[in-house]
Known about the structure:
Blueprint: E1 4-16, E2 21-23, E3 26-28, E4 33-34, H1 42-54, H2 60-63, H3 76-89, E5 92-102, H4 112-123, E6 130-135, H5 141-144, E7 148-159
Parallel strand pairs: 5-6
Antiparallel strand pairs: 1-4, 1-7, 2-3, 5-7
Helix pairs in contact: 1-3, 3-4
Amino acid sequence: MTSLRIGHGYDVHRLVEGRKLILGGVDIPWEKGLLGHSDADVLVHAVMDALTGAARLGDIGKLFPDTDPAYAGISSLKLLAEVGRLLGEKGFAVVNIDATLLAQAPKVGPYKQQMAENIAAALGISPEQVNVKATTEEGLGFTGDGSGMAAHAVVLLEITR
């Protein structure tokens, strides 16, 4: 049996007025924010689902149900830190994370390094182990017309025991 596990995560949230736009734990000035029970950080949610998938822990809906008031408005970085704790408890270490944000606007280039640093800090790993990318979808689909954002993440875990 190999000591490596790959996980893929995907998440999507609708853009609405009256909410902050939090991506990778960064509060980005924008006219709309993402709708969700927590802070709706679509990028961190995709990373969490990739991590939980690789470790066979289910998904974030199972771990942090949107029916639980304890998670209302919570920072997704706090939830990510809890996922990191669970991974350590189960004997997994993060090798690397590659995450992609799909959004027509706003441009997030200036924030990508801080996003990677925030994700790494929540997991207790080096920022060198986290890559954050962003792309538009050329005006196509719900991300292209600005009604929502999506994110994909791929992770590699190593079994440490």
